Each structure stands twice: as structure tokens, then as C-alpha cells.
Amino acid sequence: MSDETVPLLEVRNLVKHYREASGARVRALDDVSLTVRRGEVVGIVGESGCGKTTLGRTIMRLVEPTSGEIRVDGVDFASLSGAKLKAARRRVQMVFQDPFGSLNPRHKVGVIIAEPLVVHGVPGAKARVAELLDLVGLPGEAAGRYPHEFSGGQRQRIAIARALALDPALIIADEPVSALDVSIQSQIINLIGSLRARLGLSMIFISHDLSVVRHVSDRVGVMYFGKLVELAPTSALFERPRHPYTSALLASVPRPVKDVVREKRAGAGLVAAAPGEIPDPANPPPGCAYAARCPLAEPRCREAVPPLAAVETGHEAACWRSGEVAAREPITSA
Ligand SMILES: Nc1ncnc2c1ncn2[C@@H]1O[C@H](COP(=O)(O)OP(=O)(O)OP(=O)(O)O)[C@@H](O)[C@H]1O
Ligand SMILES: [Mg+2]
Q1: Which domains occur in the chain, in start order?
Q2: Does residue 227's CB lie within 6 angstroms of at least one atom of ligand 1?
Q3: Among 85, 216, 274, 326, which residue is least crowded by beta carbons within 10 Å?
């Protein structure tokens, strides 16, 4: 299955439209292409509603794509059925933002972590649960307790243990630390780093928190209004952003930790990084969706959508004026 020359995950021209109750169509994902290599962590950032969760859930086939391809180890899930599909699904697992909502409060932790093993008929669940608890830094006796007996950070360790149960090749983590206190966030981030080193995990790490994404990712993708607008190695993205939106996002951090905590308490996602409104998803503009907020916008930006294109090796941006971005808005690194 694991041919080293084939990317672990290959997403091609992925589109997801939702139909709202009013009948309006929402383009939650608009032609997203992305690969994840073996052992790589790709961070995805962007403001609330830009399509990050939809991307994760579509890759997981928790929602069906409107069009496009998703290949894991070169195999398109859509071409599989029955036992082959079930086996392929084991390769990708998800960790969600809310470690309480995602754990069944009526089940003991041992049962929760063993569930995927039972579903897939894997023998030796009890020993595997003990191994997984140890891997995520929890004591073996945790198996006999209930989720409410644990702190938020410990519950996220339980969720990670369950995601690892079937030895997946790729984990999609959707805001895995956003609900946690800042001090606990760094413990979970360190855990993810050590699991990566020990297990050679690949990951898509979704977050609205740029500093977290910078810390964990090899490459970072920036989403805006359902599109990937920039994709680059982490250092290149933070030091030489080539999309004005990325530039604006970077200019909005770092902020004092107490402000970030206050915003989280207020339930806000990433604060608006630039003045102006995000377009109505049911009525997208003809050109670049960022043009209305963009300090560099010129007439062609309102007429034609810029494609995601290479600006240097391994660095792509979807902007007609990408050459002028870094020069106009110098970014001081954190
Ligand atoms: N089931 C659904 N039905 C209709 N529209 C949806 C559905 N799920 C998401 N959307 C819409 O799709 C767009 C993308 O939503 P998504 O949840 O993927 O964003 P997100 O980037 O994860 O946001 P957040 O940072 O708030 O989690 C939004 O406009 C949202 O309202
Ligand atoms: Mg989301």
C-alpha cells in the first residue's frame, strides 16, 4: 500500500457546496488542491467560516464532496466499497475541537478507546488500550474511569489515544487545542510533537491560531472564503507571505495572551484580520473574494479569480499581485 513515491494524501480540485434551507448555495470548498507527504504536518489556517472544518470532514468522507478527488496512498475512496472501503477508512482518523462532546460520557475511557478496535474486529483490545494510554501520557487505571473525571487536556489525550487506536497514517486534527487553556495547549502540542517523532504520523492540523500552526507545521495552507489562497513551507509563509490576506493575518499577531484568552472566552474564532466584510457565500463576487478588503486590489482583481500558482519553489499563492505583497507590508517575525 505505501509506495514512497505516492503522496499519502492527495486532494484534487475539491468542491463542496451546501444547500441552505433558503435554497441558496454555499460554496464551503471551492477547488481546493493539496497534498500531504508521509510524516508531514500541514497546518490549515483562516478565519471562521472559511471552510477549514468542511475540508477536514470531506477528506474523512463524513460529508460527500460535490466534486473532486481524494486519494489516500494513491487510492480514491470513491472507487472502493465493502471491506476495502472499511480498511481504507482506518488510514485516516480525526481529532475534534471539543474533547468532551466527542467522548461518550456514559462509557468508561477503556471502552471509548477500544471502540474503533472493536468496530474493526482487531483482537487484543485490552492490551492495546493500555499501550495507547501510556503513549498519550495517561495512567493505565484511566481505562476504568469516565470522561467527566478528567480535565480538558486529559480528555483531549483520550481523544488522541482513540484516534491512534487503529494505527492510522493520517490524523486530521480540527482545532485540537482551541478549547484548552493556554498552558494546557502547549502540553498537548508537545504530545503531538512526540507522537509524530515516535510514530511517523502525518497530520492536517486545523487552527485559527497562527502561533500554534507555526509551531507544529512543516507547511501551512491559508484558506479564505472556501479557497486555498496560499500554501508554503512554514518559514517561507511567515517570513515572506505572498498573499495580502496572509500578510494581514500575520500583522494581527502576536497579541497579548490575555487578549487571546478573552476572545476565546467570548467564543470568537480568529478576529477579522483586515477591514471590510467577507463576501456573502451565497453570492460570491466575480473576481478575487479578498479584493473588497485588499489594500493592493486593482480592477482586474474584481474581474478574474487569480489561480493558486507557484511564486517560488514549493510556495504557491493565489494573487495577481503576489510579487508586491511582501515588499509592501513587511512582517516582523514573532
Ligand atoms: N451542514 C452545513 N450546511 C450548510 N452550510 C454549512 C454547513 N456546514 C458548514 N456550512 C457553511 O460552510 C462554510 C464553511 O464552514 P466551516 O465550518 O467549514 O468553516 P470553518 O473554517 O471550520 O469555521 P470555524 O473557524 O468557525 O470552525 C460556512 O459558510 C458555513 O456556514
Ligand atoms: Mg471549523
Answers
A1: 9-91+208-328 (3.40.50.300)
A2: no
A3: 85
Q: Is 269 in the pocket of ligand 1 (CB under 6 A)?
A: yes
Q: Rounded CA gap, 39 and 178, in Å?
A: 23
Q: Which ligand is the nearest neighbour of the Cα of 55?
A: 1
CA atoms in the 13 A half-sphere facing the CB of 296: 20
Contact 95, 116 (CB under 8 A): no
Beta-sheet pairing, 67-72 with 9-19: antiparallel
Ligand 1 near 28 CB (within 6 A): yes
Which residue has a Cα nearest atom 13 of ligand 1?
28
At a CB cut-off of 8 Å and minimum separation 6, what does 148 contact? 105
Ligand 1 centre from 221 Cα, in Å? Answer: 17
- Cell (9 digits) for 241: 507571505
Ligand 1 neighbour 50 (Cβ under 6 A): yes
- pLDDT confidence of 72, banded at 50, 70, 90? very high
Atom of ligand 1 nearest to the CA of 16: 12
- Which pLDDT tens digit goes with each residue over 209-221? 999 999 999 999 9
Tell whether ligand 1 has an atom less than 6 A from the beta carbon of residue 208. yes
Residue 284 has pLDDT above 70, yes or no: yes
